[in-house]
Design brief:
The protein is an alpha/beta fold. The protein has helices at residues 40-47, 70-75, 93-98, 109-114, 117-136, 152-165, 182-197, 209-215, 233-238, 240-253; strands at residues 2-11, 14-24, 29-33, 55-60, 63-64, 78-80, 170-174, 202-205, 218-223, 226-231.
Length: 254
């Protein structure tokens, strides 16, 4: 579904990504891991159009994404969460979820002003979908709460619900359990398992190795902007380059 071919990104002459190549198979959960500063979030920003790669090509379902603006990439069926929460704190939980459906709400100012029956019916359907998404993530009882007053774990779930409500074909998850306690992490992990079993295609950036090794179908490892290994969780566990570059460092600091 997603293919990267020798993608590089430089900032002021310094490489953040260097000739990164890998694929994300349809219907699978691919985990992208690596030490802090390895280039993981930079890669996601290149895929979603926030950043333009310095070189290389990115394809989504065989369509090249290079030079496409972020909103057009989103309309192709790619959604994401962010390492640092990007939510609207003064809006309700429900309204935050509805922002994930804006591309399906229409863009005619005239229809919005006339409030024709077709538009009202569409809005009711979108609201029902948003409420169903809230229910899946255990947030239905907080639908009318301002997001700003929620606990951090609930805010993370709001962002996950918003990223999935539009039924995207590819979901990019940037550290969805960062800052969560063990109970909250387990709840998010279970939701990701359900999403994987229902056929969602996901690219997951995460530092929680127990979660990654438990739910990933494929693991891609970055170190200093380069792809040093790709394989199943078992293969990655035994890869000496990975043990040195990432897992070994974690053990050393544990």
């Amino acid at each position: 579904m997603l293919q990267l071919e020798q993608v590089s990104k430089n900032f002021g002459g310094l490489p953040a990504l260097s000739d990164v190549s890998f694929t994300v198979p349809k219907g699978k959960l691919t985990a992208l891991i690596g030490p802090n500063g390895a280039g993981k979030s930079t890669l996601v920003n290149c895929v979603t159009g926030v950043l333009e790669p310095s070189s290389g090509k990115i394809y989504f379902q065989q369509q090249q994404l290079n030079n496409l603006p972020a909103h057009k990439i989103s309309r192709l069926g790619i959604s994401r969460t962010f390492q640092n929460l990007k939510i609207f704190p003064r809006l309700t939980v429900l309204d935050n979820i509805l922002t994930g459906l804006t591309r399906e709400g229409g863009d005619s100012m005239l229809l919005a002003m006339l409030r024709l029956p077709d538009l009202r019916h569409r809005e009711r359907q979108l609201k029902l979908r948003a409420l169903e998404s809230l229910d899946r993530f255990g947030l239905a009882d907080k639908a009318n709460w301002p997001v700003g007053i929620l606990a951090y774990g609930d805010k993370k779930r709001v962002e996950l619900a918003r990223a999935t409500v539009g039924q995207p074909q590819l979901i990019l998850l940037d550290e969805p359990v960062a800052g969560l306690n063990s109970e909250e992490t387990a709840a998010v992990g279970q939701q990701l398992r359900l999403m994987r079993s229902s056929g969602h295609t996901m690219l997951l950036i995460e530092h929680d190795m127990d979660l990654v090794m438990d739910i990933a179908d494929q693991v891609v490892v970055l170190d200093s902007g380069r792809c040093i290994a790709t394989g199943t969780p078992d293969e990655i566990r035994r890869n000496p380059l990975v043990l040195e570059a990432y897992l070994g460092r974690m053990d050393a600091t544990a």
